[in-house]
Structure formats: C-alpha cells, structure tokens
Design goal:
The chain has 14 helices and 38 strands. With about 725 residues, the protein is α+β, with helices and mostly antiparallel strands. The longest helix has 23 residues, at about 605-630. The chain binds alpha-D-galactopyranose.
C-alpha cells in the first residue's frame, strides 16, 4: 500500500510486515525517514520532527555542506554529499557535480512492464518519484514496487536526459538507501566453483565495503546479494535486512559506513568499466533490487525471498508446477557416448521412474572433448547417426521426455562458426584473446550474433521433440570490448552483453513456451534472480557430494527458494571429492529441491534400482512441499555436526524434515533438534517414529537425532492429526 501525506510531503510504502517512509524535506531533497517495523499513522508528526533534525537547513547559506546526517535516496556528487554517489553524470564540459531534488511523483497500480530486463512480474502498487539534477538535464525516476501481502520491496531507477546536450552516465546504480547503524554485521554469499554461496558474516568498518563481480556473470565467487544482520540475529530471532539484485552480469553492492554511523547501501551494474551515453530524451533503466526486512531472524528473511522468487520472478507457468525428474548423462558418460550406450541409460531411467532424459555436452559438431565445436549446433553424426531420432524414439518407447544441453554464448576456436566469423568472438584488436576451457565467448552485445544463435537453437527445438533445455555458460568473459561499438562507448559493452543474453532467453522461452529451461553456469556460477526470471531452476553446483551439497544448498536457500535448486544424485566415490556416502543420504539431500540423477543408471545393481525407484516415489510425496512450502533451517552444517532442514506447508498441516549426521562418535549426549515452523496448537504424527505430539512439544522439547555413522541421514514426515 502506498500513501502520500500531502500536507507533510511524506510517502509511506507498506507491505505485510514492513514500512518504508520517505519525505520531501524543506530544501526539496528526498529524504529517507524509516525502513523497518510498521509505525502508527499518528507517527507522521514524529517522523517529520526527526527528519527536520537530520535535514540540511534550507535557510542556511552553508546548506550544501550539511548532508552527512541526511539519509538520501539518491546520493549526489561534489556538492556536500561526500559519500559514494548513486549516479555519476558527465556533461559535455566534463563537469560531474550533481544535486537532486524532488520534482513530482505518481502512483500506479501493478508492477511496471520493463522490456529487455528481468523484473518483478506482479505487484500491487508502484510509486514513481522524479528528481531533477540542479546542474544538468539529468532526471531520475526512482521506483518503489510493493506487494501488500509480501515482505519484499523492489526498487530501481531510470535515468533520463531531459535536455538537448548529450550526457554520459559513468555510474548508474539502481539503489541507494540508508540505515542508522545498529552494530549490523554484513552477510554475503561468497564462494568459488564447487563451493558456491558460502555464508560469510563480518563486522562493518568505516568506509566502503564492496561486493562485486567483474567476470561478465554474477559469478561463483560472490552472489549479487547482501544482508545486514544485527549482532545476535539467529535463524529465528533478530533483525536483518536483505538486498538482492535482479541481475546476472557485472554487479556491485556497496555498504558505506560514514562518520555519522549511517550505512549507505547501494548497488546495481558494476561501475568499474561502465558508461552509458544518453542523448536528448533517451533514458536508461537499471536492474531491479529486492529489499527485504525481518524481525524474526534470517529464516523469515529467506522465506520472504523464497515467496518473492516463486510469486514474482519465476514464470507463473512453471513457478509451482511439478518439475521434470531428470536423468542426465554427463557424469555417466562424459563425451563418450553413442545411441547404443545411451539407450540402456534411458531404459533404466524409465525403470526407476524418472520422466526426462537429458543429453549433456558432446552431442554436436565433432565434439569429443572440450576443445572443439561450441557454436556448431548440429548433431554429431559420428555419435548419433541420423540425428536425435533414435534417442528420442527410445525415450518415447520408455515414456520419457527428451532434453538437451546447450551453451549458446560460447564458441570454440576449432569450430565452423569461428572459422566463418572469427570477429564474433569477444576480442580487442592488439590483445591476444584468452581461452578458458578452450573456448571463447561470443559478442552477445551484437544483435546479429544473438539472431544467429537464436536461429540455431530455435531450429533444434522446432525440428526435434525436445521438452527440456539445460543452458550452460562455462567461462568468465575477458578482453571486455566489442569491435562493433565505437571506442568511446566501450563502457556499455558488459551490460549490452547481458542484455543480449536476456534477449536470447526471452525469445527462446517465449517462442517455445512448453520447453522447460534450466540455467547452469559451470554449476551455480550464474545463480541469480535475473536468470530465474527466464529459467525456473538452476543447476546448483557441479559439486554433487552430499555433504558439500548440503552446505551449498543451505547457503543458496538464504535468498532463493528450494524449488530454484536443481539437485542430482550422483555416483560414489564422488567425482569432485572422492567421498562415498550412502545412496540414501545422496537422495535426501537432493530431495530438497528439484531432484534428479547424474549417474549411469544402466550400471546400477538391482538393489540400487529398487532404492532409486523408492526415492522417486518418496519425492513425489513431498514434491508439493518443495514447490510451495516454507523452509526452516534447523541445524547448520557449517557450524555443527548435523545438517537439518524442514519444509512446512503454508497451512502447517504437513512437514518434511531431512537430517544428516556429519561425523559419528561415541557420546552420552542425546542430541535433539527443535522443530520450528509448526503450529504450536496442533497435534502432529511423526510417521517414522510412530509418535504424536503437539507442535509446541516438538518445538520446545524437540526430537532426538539418530546417530548411525558418518554422513548418515534420516527423514521425518509429519502430519497434523485431525479427529
Ligand atoms: C558444466 C556443467 C556440467 C556439465 C558440463 C558439460 O561444467 O556444470 O553439469 O554440463 O559443463 O561440459
């Protein structure tokens, strides 16, 4: 709900449990007054009083030097606001000084439609506040997109040149908001390949702390998310604020602590190598940022983000729909396969109850290893004589759908595409092109290149019965440059590249609405809301070891729904860690997301086949919880000897609990886990234990966790008893 108090010039934006309040102060600046718990209507007076104390004195000749204590919604440059500017706008004379003041505002119903960028699909109200630079023709529209029953507020900015002279944006952040520092800690999700989204919490010192990516993708190394958490915040208690970008390219998120102990949180497109030219009347739309606030710990923040991802980001056609249960051949065969080898895998996939077979890397050009053929999206006849027909027929005979791996943004040096269009690969003349995994990246800032790749992939989808696509992206960008852009507009390249990726994603997903697309980037290297807008789930990590996966999934769940995570059960010893854990443990960890298989199901024993069949059967029992439920993280595998998570349906009637003991040791202590998220007044039956108890008893007394050995696991299915 958005309300404007005309007399006091105060805007109030309210969601389910938060309120965000702004005012236009006497000097005409847009000032943030409050973000947090909902206040009473009568508090408008108090807020105004508090604002006046922090605002620069409009009558004072030194007003311009009085911004250190004012909470700004758009930081300016070189005129008394000495924190990092939100936007840097260079005029033809080279000047950068700016200062923004309120001009007008409007309130709209629903969420704005933004073309070319992923964005929230649905909301109740949108507030647009327009500011004008005092010293240039730059106008800034600040957007606030709110949902009455949601706890996520979406913000972004549109920068517009309202004059005749061209201007150049040298930074164009999406977000600026400020908070009084209550000794907050900074939580980020850092990592690397195979250990993505590891939570790290540190104190916030004075000056600027910056999280970012310059890899051309949101990256394995740093997720485009941060949270500010009070010192004693736990999963269940305490205050925290989240900031999550709906963006997949080079990003920056910064927290600046100033001498007045204000924290300015900013972010958007990384400004390191960025510029964007705006001629008369042109505008630039920044990526959206999803803000969330919780007084009930990190768990509640995560649940708000999970609801946001499912209800506002993911295509509604897929958001809550049953996911395909995939058997993928990558870890089974790598590049070494042919129809004869794949058919038994498909037959056995059907026997365990999977519904989709996905053919991974190696099916195209003459690709027998990773040094050729990317870009040549035609079937490798040596391996698959006659094309996909035999494989698809085999799938159909066995009642399975067929899926395909692609890596559309890449090209191998040894490929027909590169031989024909060497200039289509990203390069800077005079600088040796650098390979990674023996491949180059195509210049997706060029429409012609995207068009060509669209045609190749569309042809495959048109001519073959393909119902699933796994979209990979296996290297970072380098030599950031486009030979197609003028020398003085190279700062647009990285963003134009990701716009090209979004364009291809949009065109393919809308032209083939029945094809299910899964995102992947060498595992979870582009796990962000930008990608989730097009692809309802993402291959979480190349690390499929159950214990490592439990940690990766724990970190990922801090700001994404479990249904966004694609989790496969792979063979043991694990390819990445060499560790062997039981099929049961691999299964229950994978069941906390979109479950599938990544091993040679034609080589499993009869017992394993039976067990997998049961795994799929059991998964279907809890699938609706995975898709719709609320996640409660009970025991942290980073800091304790147990991993335990629980998913509860919104009505609190059923729950699914997964636990794993890391190391076993003789001990007299009975380790109990308190179940949170149930209704304390209801009586529940714990199927595996044959016992019933109230929600209160389960949360106060807890249940004893089994001790069966290293990396052993268990599940509890809980159901309300209704008499
Ligand atoms: C990446 C993916 C894997 C697999 C390989 C194929 O590493 O994450 O799942 O598809 O590429 O080359």
């Amino acid at each position: 709900m958005i309300v404007f108090n005309e007399q006091k010039r105060i805007f109030s934006i309210e969601g389910k449990n938060y309120q965000y309040v702004l005012c236009v102060n006497d000097a005409g600046f847009l000032q943030k007054l409050h973000y947090g718990k909902k206040l009473a209507e009568a508090d408008a007076n108090f807020l105004k009083y508090a604002a006046e104390k922090d605002a620069p004195d409009a009558q004072n000749a030194n007003m311009d030097m009085q911004f250190d204590g004012m909470q700004s919604e758009c930081g300016f440059f070189g005129r008394g606001d000495y924190r990092e500017a939100t936007v840097l706008c260079e005029r033809t004379d080279g000047g950068l000084v700016s200062r923004f003041r309120y001009v007008s505002h409007a309130v709209y119903q629903g969420a704005p439609e933004i073309s070319g960028l992923p964005h929230v699909r649905q909301a109740d109200d949108t507030l647009k506040i327009t500011l004008q630079d005092d010293f240039s023709s730059l106008q800034v529209d600040l957007f606030y997109v709110a949902k009455n029953d949601g706890d996520v507020l979406v913000k972004y900015a549109v920068y517009r040149n309202g004059g005749n002279e061209p201007i150049r944006l040298r930074r164009a952040f999406s977000l600026c908001t400020e908070l009084e520092n209550r000794n907050y800690r900074l939580l980020r999700l850092e990592g690397g390949w195979g250990e993505e989204r590891t939570p790290e919490t540190t104190p916030i010192g004075h000056g600027i702390t910056r999280l970012h990516s310059l890899r051309g993708a949101s990256s394995h190394q740093m997720n485009p998310f941060l949270a500010l958490v009070e010192e004693n915040t736990t999963e269940e208690n305490g205050v925290c604020f989240g900031f999550q970008l709906v963006y997949s390219g080079n990003f920056a998120l910064t927290v600046e602590r100033n001498n007045n102990d204000l924290l300015r949180v900013q972010g958007g497109i990384n400004d390191t190598d960025f510029s964007w030219d705006l001629n008369q009347g042109e505008s630039f739309t920044t990526p959206q940022v999803a803000l969330s606030y919780s007084t009930c710990g990190l768990g509640a923040l995560s649940r708000a983000y999970a609801d946001f991802v499912r209800a506002q980001i993911v295509d509604p056609k897929w958001a809550f729909a049953q996911r395909p249960i995939v058997v993928n051949n990558w870890e089974a065969t790598c590049y070494e396969f042919n129809s004869e080898k794949l058919c038994p895998i498909i037959e056995n996939a059907a026997k365990i109850g999977a519904d989709t077979f996905v053919l991974d890397d190696g099916w195209f050009g003459k690709r027998d290893n990773d040094d050729s053929s990317l870009g040549d999206w035609v079937v490798n006849q040596q391996k698959l004589e006659g094309g996909f027909k035999k494989i698809i027929d085999c799938c159909k005979r066995n009642g399975l759908h067929f899926g395909l791996w692609i890596e559309p943004e890449m090209v191998s040096e040894d490929s027909d595409l590169f031989r024909l269009h060497p200039d289509w690969a990203i390069q800077k003349s005079g600088v040796k092109m650098c390979q990674s995994r023996n491949q180059y990246v195509l210049d997706f800032s060029r429409r012609q290149v995207v068009d060509y790749i669209y045609e190749c992939i569309a042809k495959l989808l048109r001519e073959n019965e393909i119902s699933f696509v796994k979209w990979d992206f296996n290297r970072s960008l380098s030599e950031f440059y486009s030979e197609a852009l003028p020398f003085d507009r190279q700062g647009e390249f990285a963003h134009r590249f990701i716009l090209g990726v979004y364009d291809l994603s949009e065109r393919l997903t809308s032209s083939f609405p029945n094809v299910f697309f899964e995102g992947c980037a060498s595992g979870g290297g582009r796990f962000d809301c930008g990608m989730l807008y097009y692809f309802p789930q993402i291959w979480t990590s190349d690390d499929t070891d159950a214990f490592e996966r439990a940690k990766i999934q724990w970190g990922t769940s801090i700001c994404y729904s479990v249904s966004a995570m694609s989790n496969h059960i792979s063979a043991c010893p694990n390819l990445q860690t060499g560790r062997s854990v039981s099929l049961q443990t691999r299964g229950v960890v994978a069941s906390l997301g979109a479950m599938g298989y990544e091993l040679d199901v034609s080589k499993i024993s009869a017992d394993e086949q039976e067990e997998m069949k049961k795994q799929i059967f059991d998964y279907k029992r809890v699938e609706s919880l995975i898709l719709n439920g609320d996640l409660f993280r009970l025991s942290n595998p980073f800091t304790s000897n147990y991993f335990c998570e629980m998913i509860v349906d919104k009505e609190k009637r059923t729950a699914y609990i997964v636990g794993m003991q890391v190391h076993n040791a003789p001990s007299r202590v009975k380790e109990k886990i308190r179940l949170i998220g149930l209704d304390e007044g209801k009586i529940y039956f714990v199927e595996e234990l044959g016992v019933s108890a109230s929600g209160k008893a389960l949360s106060v007394l807890g249940l004893e966790m089994p001790k069966r050995g290293d990396f052993t696991s268990w599940t509890w299915h809980i159901k309300e008893i209704i008499d």
